[in-house]
Amino acid sequence: MISTFYLPGRVCSTKAIKEIAQQTTEPYTMICLKPGIEWVYLGQERMVQVMEMTGATMVYADHFNKLKIKNEELKITEAPVIDYQIGALRDDFDFGAVLLWDTKKLKALVAQMDTEYEFAGLYDLRLRAEKLEHIPEYLYYEVETDTRKSGEKLFDYVDPRNRQVQIEMEQCVTAHLKRIGAYLKPGEYKELPVTGNPYPVTASVIIPCKNRARTIADAIHSALAQKVREGYSFNVIVVDDNSTDGTAEIIDKLQITNDKLVLIHQDPTWHAIGGNWNVAIHDPRCGKYAIQLDSDDTYFDETTVQKFIDAFEGAPSPVTRNPLPLFGMVIGTYQLTNMAGEILPPGVIDHREWTDDNGRNNALRINGLGAPRGFYVPLLRTINYPTTKYGEDYAVGLRISRDYPIGRIYDVLYNCRRWEDNSDANCDIVAMNRNNWYKDRLRTWELQARMNS
After folding, report:
1. Is the torsion defined by CA of 156, 161, 165, 169 positive or negative?
2. Considering the entire predicted model, what is its pTM?
3. DSSP code for 328
4. d(Cα 364, Cα 267) in Å, to the nearest integer?
């Protein structure tokens, strides 16, 4: 009833997929992405049963991870996966190591595959599938080979060593967006909103924070050290979200000695990072441009704010500058460091996969657009951040990219400091699934908006 084939991971050629489709002879085709799969009693039969009940093109299931630890002892942990949705366009979506396909539907899909990929064969196949069904039951054991913490895996997709793979994945998702009517053509943008209101400063550095007593002073000093040319000005807006570790007191002391520093104390209701940003950008002291700085990071040097202003305005003089900026959003380049300032691999993250022609389409595939981020405030006030503590920046970036141009700065502007209190440093599988599901949801909503526009 089942023909079984082994592929060494999710990155594979179109040729390999076509060979499987040609060789399979049974009603169901099982593709295993890892060797050594061990089944729960009647696990395979359950996958077939769900396939027959749902009419799915492919089914996948929760499983157990087996990890060898010292003295060859095995540690077995639960490894749930998440439901597939139309916005689950990440090429690294985790299905687990076992994919069970309806053979007739598999062959029909493979017959449609008209581009020969070296790396994106399996990605192309599953993007074409109409119904991918998740079975929330633990049906098999697989051997866990990647034992890194979540924070160490986070930047794999922008590692320069994976560049050729990423180029193919972008080509593949772009073709998919064209097939489903969600592709955005180059250069078709709406006009940015005009504001007649004067702004107190040209730019505001926005720092949302909660319980960052160890790092907040570094961030603020980095922001206050910025230098802008004559005719421009900036301030630093720190939004403290009910810190209990002395963070607010540190900010208060710094505010006494520097009138560029604005402190906003949040009320005790739910805000998260997105809500803190909303309070800052709607504050009358906010400038025309809002520039991101996380409370545990620092700017690379004192030129970051001016480089953002120049990118928005095409580096004119203050007297002759354009009434409207060139972009709704500008994204810079950062480097990964530890708390001592030492560079961590993969080093500089510049998101050079972004192109003016296709960046906003490829944005639906990748898990982030880069940092630091700067925004044209009159536009951002019409969109606002979602009130969440994860994915809020990605949501805003997707929304802006749909209708407005995004600029890039490829100079290093920002030190992204990795330490044990980063929100994504060592997430357990439940937190990782929650985060990935939410970003897939954001992509689903954005995809629907683009298809309906």
Report:
1. positive
2. 0.91
3. S
4. 35
